[in-house]
Design goal:
alpha/beta, Rossmann fold, eight-stranded mixed sheet, globular, binds 3-hydroxybutanoyl-coenzyme A
Amino acid sequence: MDNLTPRGSMGIERIAVLGAGQMGNGIAQVAACAGYEVVMIDIKQDYLDNGLAAIENSLSRVVKKERMTQQDADVAISLISTSTEKTSASDADLVVEAIPEIPELKFSTFTELDSICKPEAILASNTSSISINAIADATNRPDRVIGMHFMNPVPVMKLVEIINGQDTSSEVTELVVEASERMGKVPLACNDSPGFVSNRILCPMINEAILALEEGVAEPEAIDGIMKLGMNHPIGPLALADLIGLDTILHIMNVLHEGFEGNPKYAPSDLLKDMVSEGKLGRKSGEGFYSYS
Ligand code: 3HC
């Protein structure tokens, strides 16, 4: 790729969000609330319908709290279109990918997006753990690939962790910082490294809480209560694991363990591995450290 090709100055107006799941629909929502034209793309119409329903539900909570008028919520919804074709991202200025955390799927998706999207489009990934450099390598525009890591639940959480790959241009970082701020978020930047900053710190803490439970140090309610009341955390680490998904926590611990060359401090606990293999994934499966039936 010729990095010197002038692309002209650009502003972000149209955003494509790939994936209508928990993170994708949240990102589509905050982008539309900021006035961006948004296309939400997923492989099945059902997923898109569920994503739109989640957005409507979340917006109605915000309207009920009188933090937004019904009229503004209606405008936001009208800015969101849906599609089952990735080619609908062809005129986007920014694509935010929020598909499952499967490295090969991410790489092939970015190769495809690179061929579909206009040359100046920025390709961002909401990955929680996959290397931005490796994702960028799957494209011919590594200077326009960046991490945009939103937190769950997206409409509520202020942070967007911005992950610069080794080739990400400063212009791209600036544009993505600006777009995140327009979405009402606080963007904070870091460099590509296993787990970035957020999950490098958060997931070992959660894993430690699971080890404490496994070793019989305390019951789940006590572990969570100690961290809530003692450290002012909004919810305890085990309840947070249930919110994030135990499979996601295990996946991130494995990425950290491998990424830091087998350092035992990142080894996932046996209880975490057992619960994932038993299908106890937290809120999404109805059972984790707590029951959600
Ligand atoms: N849409 C809109 N508003 C929402 C919402 C949604 N989806 N979910 C919650 N809210 C609002 C509620 O309306 C409520 O508003 P209020 O303050 O005006 O009453 C407020 O958020 C609090 O919600 P609830 O009263 O229902 O419940 P809680 O007080 O338990 O708060 C929470 C929910 C904000 C999620 C809180 O439990 C919390 O902060 N949890 C920690 C979240 C966290 O740490 N997230 C990061 C996860 S790590 C991550 O995402 C990275 C990944 O890579 C793993």
